[in-house]
Amino acid sequence: MAEKKNHAEHAHGEEHLREKHLMLDPLPRGQMNAMVMESMHTTSWKFWAVFGLLAAITAYGLFYSWGVMIAEGLGVAGVNRPAYWGIFLVNTVFWIGISHAGTFISAILRVFKAEFRRPFTRAAELMTTFGLVQAGFSIFMHMGRVWLSYWLMPYPNQRMLWPNLHSPLSWDLLAITTYLLSSTMYLFLPLIPDVAMARDRSTGWRKTFYKILALGFRGTEGEWTHLRNAMNIFAWAIIPVMFSVHTIVSWDFAAATRPGWNSTIFGPYFVVGALHSGMGAVIMVLAVVRGTMKNMKYFIRPEHFEAIGKLMLIISMTWAYFFFNDYMVQWYGGDKWTKQLLHFHEAGPMGWMWFVMLIFNVAIPWAVLWNRKWRSTPWIVFTVGLLINVGMWFERYIIIPISLSINRMPFTWRLYQPGIEIPLGIGTLAFFILLYMAASRLIPLIPVWEVQEGQMAHELKKYGRETVVTVSELE
Amino acid sequence: MDIKISEVKLSEEQAGKWGLVIDQDICTGCQACVAACAMENNLSFVGEEDSGYGRSMHWIRIERFWEGEYPEVKMTPNQPMMCQQCGSAPCEPVCPVFATVHSEAEQLNLQVYNRCVGTRYCANNCPYQVRSFNWRDYERPEPLPNQLNPDVTVRRRGVMEKCTFCIQRIHQAQDQAKAEGREVVDGEFTTACAQACPASAIIFGRVDDPESLVSQLGRRSHGVKHLEELGTLPNVTYFKGG
Questions:
Q1: I need a labelling partner for B175 at 20 to 30 A (CA). Which of A64, A147, A302, B81 fits?
Q2: What residue ranges in A154-244 does DSSP mark as E strands?
Q3: CA of A257: which chain B residue's CA is closest?
């Protein structure tokens, strides 16, 4: 009798494991492919309503407002002396930060062979590319004469004028362009087998579209070998590129002579800050995808939120460490302008922002994410991710316009009030979501072949009465 | 193709060629220099609203400060502030398109208006906060265009500008002297701000000539160069309390 009960418990344990872990819960390949195809084809009226709304916001907030600003000049924005840089630069740093987590999750977890990454690498990589698009919009908006922005490129011309490679902005341009190109290629490589799958299961214009994207992939042994080699090279190579990009973005500030900016720790501090907001964005995207797209509850499970939640907690702690380190050393230095600035951060008219930043970036993640149950619940981690993103946006706001309000010439001190930056910023956000929604219906959001590969590698074996998970190396 | 590109040296120890000496004790704060500069250099009139929001386009400004708490308030001497024409200028290396560059001939910081794309990095990195940005195309109603100085470019929206030490006057004097086959004499010409100052609180001249008035005044013991500790090598000397 006792033995029988034990057996039942074990059977229940196995069932429980399958339910919990996607890798242990395989479906027939054909069925899984059909599920992904179905999720891509299904659009409800709600989808089109949101899509239309976002398109309208993008058209007004991004393109019309930008047109007004190009025609009128930057006077319609809130930038002034001394805050020559405002929300445009805040948004640039913010979007580059968002774009970081895509590559981080995908490349680092791929390199370390973390199995839980499999269903959501593409969802994260898409964020990188679309986030960089918004960063590009934000930085070009910020220029006084954007129609001459090609002067930043080193192109041959009769007068032999070249860009100034001493300027951190020139480094920025090179770094961000490199990152955009490499991350787009890195997004594309693992996509090839999936669009080939979609090509074989579509008709009409979709078939043509996937045919072009799939580059004639048929799934032969040779093609897989080449693809794996290319992906391996990119996964390793893109990690230093990712670190360099945000370090160089931080040098825009750290290399300047201003109090509060001239800090040697800004490089790693910015990288960690980027990962902090980026991870929050990944978890938000996953919660929305799971909640709104068909068949996604099979692919994206609480175990994934749980795993990313752990990463978020660690990154939040690292961010707090760097924040404290930056603050401590600047304050201890005792420079009178820096002291004024730090006081202005906390006790100035925008002091509330400083406290909200710390609560959203540190206090709330620490208070919530330690709990396994909470960090496995989609709506809870969605909220935490949202708050982290607000907090990180505030952090950049404090570093850019608020720190610019205070300088070594007290006669010029003045607060910054955003103007047309607000519709423009909302426009970039709407455009980001719009691109993401369009992509979710055009390309398979789940890397099906990666999931299937992982499921083949995982096995539940019985040793005596124990059920043991085994993973074999396939690659 | 054989094109020689002249080597640009950005030495730390550039001596400077032209300089200003400002005596804050005799400055009355009358703003005549501000007005004269605006007339000479075709500055835009930005209007009350933009001016109040920190967008005034003055290449020179009179800074006034108070010391102490009410009612024990003490005014400090007026402090005219303009581009210090640094020998090692923080604004120069940060421009991605070489729109702000050091001139070897005049040893001044030049702003090349038609090369500027408006990143405003130079203005952020200027510790003296003396750069003005053209936030809009400001109106210049009739008959004001008749007053424009033909020797100075009129700037459009989206470019940075700043004090040039009236480089057009420097060139005019040099051309005149060259035509007459002689050197430029000290005091032969001056900048618009120095010319307009009724108290002669602003003196302009060659700082690399030890006999010039500006050098002689500059040698007095209590001269101060602003934010010298940053290593910017400014070419403007201030006197106060002497």
A1: B81
A2: none
A3: B125
Cβ distance A13 to A467 under 8 Å? Answer: yes
Read off the pLDDT of each residue in A232-256 and give the average, rounded to a whole number. 92
Residue A15 has a pLDDT of 79
Give mean pLDDT in consecutive 10-residue pieces for chain B, a chain of 242 residues. Answer: 43 66 93 95 92 92 89 89 93 94 89 94 94 92 91 93 94 93 89 94 90 87 88 91 74
Handedness of CA B167, B168, B174, B178 (dihedral sign): positive
Q: Do residue A167 and residue B54 have CB atoms under 8 angstroms apart?
A: no
Given an 8 Å threshold on Cβ–Cβ distance, is B117 in contact with A144? yes
Query: Does the beta-carbon distance from A143 to B121 stay under 8 Å?
Result: no
The DSSP annotation for chain B comes to ---PPPPPP--TT---SEEEEEETTT-----HHHHHHHHHTT----HHHHIIIII---SEEEE--EESSTTS-EEPPPEEEE----SS-THHHH-TTS-EEE-TTT--EEE-GGG-----HHHHH-TT---EE--S-----TTGGGG--TTSPPP-TT-EE---SSHHHHHHHHHHHHHTTSPPPTTS---HHHHH-TT--EEEEESS-TTSHHHHHHTSTT-B-TTGGGT---SEEEE---
Residue A446 DSSP symbol: S
Specify if B6 maps to a domain: no
Residue A257 to residue B125, Cβ atoms within 8 A: yes
Phi and psi (nearest 5°) for B151? -85, -5
* Residues A328-356 pLDDT 10s: 999 998 888 999 999 999 999 999 999 99
Residue B171 belongs to some domain of the structure: yes
Closest Cα in chain A, distance from residue B209 (Å): 31
Q: Would you say residue A283 has pLDDT above 70?
A: yes
Q: pLDDT grade, residue A77 (50/70/90)?
A: very high
- Whether B8 is in a domain gets the answer no
C-alpha distance from A88 to closest chain B C-alpha (Å): 11
Concatenate the DSSP letters of all residues of A289-318 into one string.
HHHHSTTHHHHS-HHHHHHHHHHHHHHHHH
**Separation of alpha carbons B86 and B212, rounded Å:** 20
From chain A, pick out residues whose CB is under 8 angstroms from the CB of B53. Answer: 80, 414, 417
Question: Measured between alpha carbons, how far is A25 from A14 in angstroms, rounded to an integer?
Answer: 10
* pLDDT at residue A11, as a whole number: 55
Q: Which residue of A has its CA nearest to B128?
A: A409
ipTM: 0.89
Residue B43: is it exposed, middle or buried by C-beta count within 10 angstroms (0-12/13-18/19+)?
A: buried
Q: How far is A79 from chain B (nearest CA, A)?
A: 9
- The chain A residue lying nearest B54, using CA atoms, is A81
CATH number at residue A19: 1.20.1630.10
CATH code for the domain in which residue B162 is found? 3.30.70.20
Structural domain that includes position B71: 18-239
Under a CB-based contact definition with an 8 Å cutoff, are residues A41 and A205 in contact?
Answer: no
pLDDT in tens, A137-171: 999 999 999 999 999 998 898 888 899 999 999 99
Residue type, A2: A
Question: How many distinct structural domains can be found in chain A?
Answer: 1
Other CB atoms within 10 Å distance of the CB of residue A32: 21
B54 with A414: CB under 8 angstroms? yes
pTM confidence score: 0.92
Q: Say whether B118 and A145 touch across the interface (CB within 8 A).
A: yes
**In angstroms, what CA-CA distances link A350 with A92, A151, B104, B179?**
21, 37, 44, 60
Domain with A67, as residue range(s), is 11-152+168-471
